[in-house]
């Protein structure tokens, strides 16, 4: 072994409403930062998911989904404050989103099986 590197890793869960071909589901963003940098890893995970809108055939509606805007605004006081509020307990919000996903999936048309 040559040495150790401390990193902070984060996966953020985000809601994806679905499309005509895909049911409602949760998606993830991934962040990794050197050292003990929880906020930076969380912010990176949010940006990762946001910039992957094309993978999910989502319409790019917000500035956070545009690479140029993100690069110009991601390392400032406002960004740190936004990420800090995500560290608060959000289990109530998550439960309500989980219930919404279940309801959307239940009401979505089921694919026909080839039997």
UniProtKB/TrEMBL annotation:
Q: What is a single Pfam family found in this protein's UniProt entry?
A: PhnI
Instruction: Write down the InterPro entries for this protein, in alphabetical order.
Output: PhnI
What's an example GO BP annotation here?
organic phosphonate metabolic process
According to UniProt, the name of this protein is Phosphonate metabolism protein PhnI
């Amino acid at each position: 072994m040559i040495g150790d590197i401390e990193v902070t890793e984060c996966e953020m869960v985000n809601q994806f409403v679905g499309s005509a071909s895909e049911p409602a589901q949760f998606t993830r963003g991934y962040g990794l930062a050197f050292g003990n940098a929880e906020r930076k890893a969380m912010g990176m995970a949010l940006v990762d998911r946001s910039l992957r809108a094309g993978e999910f055939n989502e319409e790019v509606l917000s500035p956070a989904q545009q690479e140029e805007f993100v690069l110009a605004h991601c390392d400032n006081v406002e960004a740190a404050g936004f990420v800090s509020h995500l560290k608060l307990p959000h289990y109530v919000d998550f439960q309500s989103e989980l219930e919404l996903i279940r309801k959307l999936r239940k009401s979505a048309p089921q694919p026909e099986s080839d039997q």
